[in-house]
Records
---
Amino acid sequence: MSDEQELYHAADKMAADYLAHITDRPVFPGPDMVAQLEQLGGALPTQQNDPHAVLDMLSRIGGAATTATNGPNYFGFVIGALLPIAGAAERIALAWDQCASSHVNSPAMAAIEKTAGQWLLEILDLPRDTAVGFGTSATACGFSALAAAQTYLLRQSGWDLDRSGLRGAPPVRIVVPDTVHVTVKKAIRLLGFGTRDIVTVQTDDFGRMRPDALPHFDALTVLCLQAGDVNTGEFDRFSDIIPTAKAAGAWVHVDGAFGLWARASQDKRSSTDGVELADSWTTDGHKTLNTAYDSAVTICRHADLLASTMNAEAAYAPSETDAQKNLTLEFSRRAHGLGFWAVLQTLGRSGVGSMVDGYCALATQLAEGCREAGVTVLNRVVFNQVLCQLADPADTPAFLKLIEQDNAVWFGPTMWRGQPAFRLSVSSWRTDEDAIRRALDAIGRALHQLECQKNG
Ligand SMILES: Cc1ncc(COP(=O)(O)O)c(C=O)c1O
């Protein structure tokens, strides 16, 4: 075996050993493990080191201080785990080390991402002639979609953004729900919009934009809706809202970072009815679909427009209009669509549907258990998110501290309607009924300890 092969072999063995214990390892690293991370720092090495020693150090010290997000017991944020085929495909792709900018750079990756894009439109049942750009995150992909929206609306009003820039341009307004995700706000800010350009619409008791509270739409409005609110998992009422906005000439963007995958489930699909009427959509692979991190997508109905907005043609790097470098922020890039291809090729339509249905069924089970334990479940649990509140919401930090010390499962805090709450997300293919039981046991233990603390 060559040195190179030996090194990769050693890495594969370490990775396999890590995964063999993923269910039993502490879900969050203990303070001693975190303290050891100092050993990965220190002065910049002046001499060469043995790659095996470097790998060993990384695996021992770094690995010990990881959060077990790839396991069944992590319910924080909407993290998602990694399906074996998605991880394995990335492993091969690392050996290939393709710069997947265009066909000229990598015929293999260009073909794979093209197919992944077509399959994605099929499984999400979105208009088939749209552009599909694979990027690193819903944040970055949302940015691209909103950049296209801005270009489009200004162009329609007779303003050439490429020539004249933003200064002096007709004012574009952005309409968002009061539950809008922070990363959409970030994209809006980076695109040059100020808070005075943003109109925030109240949501109903479920967390959906209220159709009776909509502002006036016109041809200089971008409306941002959500397929899957991060707290409640709720879906905006697309059929009731999008036609009105479109009739006025507005652009409609849907942030579906994790919830757009409801389209793949026969049971849940109707929550997204009408979403196909929008102009642009974003979703992640690294959440619901359980691909590796840095895998997301911008889908844009106006294919040429996305391609001209994100265009990165250079004399030394000519390519097709719909090359990935012309649809995304990155120029040199790895194939962020590879994980989508690998998972869709492996699970197919029915497998993805079952995975999504599985999350939803387990989330419902979790919510029932929480209610039985005396916790208020604030949402309807329409998807994979369970939003909870203690009888006294002010107890939330102490309760979460106990959950953290117990270290059987992990989930974090949030705020709902100005009150502390906490949220569990079922988004790992490894989470099963045992993991739900472990979560409910941990919640029961923490509630009991909290009661003891309060009673002195
Ligand atoms: C609804 C929603 N939108 C956008 C994002 C941002 O996604 P990413 O972390 O991939 O940028 C998230 C992340 O949790 C989310 O839940």
Note: The mean pLDDT is 97.
---
Amino acid sequence: MSDPIYAQTWYDENSIKPSKSSNFNEKLNRYDFAVIGGGLAGLVLSLKLSQGGATVAVFESKTIGSGASGRNGGFCSAGWAANPIKIKRLLGEKKAELFEDLGVRGFEWMKKQVSKPTYKKVNVKFGELNLSLAKFNNKDESSLNPHNLKKYLISPRYKSGLINKDSFQFNPLNFMRILMKECLENGVHIFENCSVLKVERSDVINSFELLTKSNQNFIAQKVIYATGGYGGLCTSKLDKVLLPIKTFIAVTDPLPGTLKDHIHTEFMVSDNRRAGNYYRRLDGDRLLWGMGISAFGSKSLSTIKRDAFKDLKSHFPNLAQEMSTSGLSFEYVWSGFMGYSRNFLPYVGELSANKYALAGFGGHGMNTAPISAICLSDFLLGNRNSLNSFNGVRHLPHYGSFGKVAAEIVYKYLSLKDFISEYRPI
Ligand SMILES: Cc1cc2nc3c(=O)[nH]c(=O)nc-3n(C[C@H](O)[C@H](O)[C@H](O)COP(=O)(O)OP(=O)(O)OC[C@H]3O[C@@H](n4cnc5c(N)ncnc54)[C@H](O)[C@@H]3O)c2cc1C
């Protein structure tokens, strides 16, 4: 059975054709920068470095967008994986403000990017409905009450909701493929199916040699690890700091007629639980359903499918019932890795002399990965202040399996807190 981490996604079958990646016979004798990882972080960094006049090679184990960046929920909003209260506690008020501002700038950058005519195929739709399962607090005037919520969806569980007209949904794989084209047009060399296995000091002065699985060696002056939650192929200090955490997505069979009766809105929908769901309608009357995390083991495709159905049923029992009656279910299920640090903040900056990290965006990378990449590229191109916002971030070791157990316990604890607040009177 195929590994859910690389299982076929709905995006794989509903996206534009990728550009042809670079050929080994184009490779330069030496690059200014070698970027390991062809996700959103790695590509935005490469584009910016190359636009700044540097020579850049990107190495991607599989294909561009095969990591989290091309198989995620496609939700883009401001903010970070850590919530604002946590960020304030970790960084102090002043730094936290700068950090929050970066999250907004990342969101604005993405918004500008997707509005370019060349990015039309990413199929942007604006608007997010953020729901609460806790009892409706009628003192909050901006909040939709259970009656008004019915205009958007029919579910017995949600008690209130807020609309954010600015956030948007999009096809992340198309975004990655268009960004790849833009990188190539700007002179970036992109080598796919080219895992970096080792980075060693080179005989060439002030350089590293990258040894790849394709039996090709490359020389670069500086190396950036933009490996997301997929690190560990070539060990770096990052592996001690970032835990690979899995999360899951399921996409239904086409549900013509049925789906819109239960979820009327085209807005992307999320809920404000600490361990919540996110979902959105896709073209072709399908529903994309995002859920859960796991630090351990491997769930089979059939287990993810079963869990998704159970989860959907607990929010939309009538929809689930109609699906069962018609013999419909989830056609696509998959998972992906997110890189999480102990404090949920990313690692952006120097790892050791001339080696840098750009990873750890957790489940909120669509705005945070690009803005972090922009800050790092400015730094590498000579603006020594551009990483100041990241200076106070501590990088704590996760202690391997111990960290994974801790992550599972925290997730269970948060789910329990969610459960209690759902049933607690206000
Ligand atoms: C299922 C899922 C749903 C999500 N939904 C959302 C969402 O809706 N909104 C949101 O904001 N965020 C979401 N996220 C999080 C977001 O996708 C990530 O934070 C973001 O994509 C991280 O980008 P990245 O470039 O750091 O990592 P990735 O996109 O994972 O890229 C890292 C790449 O590095 C490559 N790599 C690793 N090691 C090597 C090596 N040695 N040699 C060569 N290549 C290597 C990997 O193959 C991979 O392609 C989701 C994540 C997942 C998994």
Note: The chain has eleven helices and 16 strands.
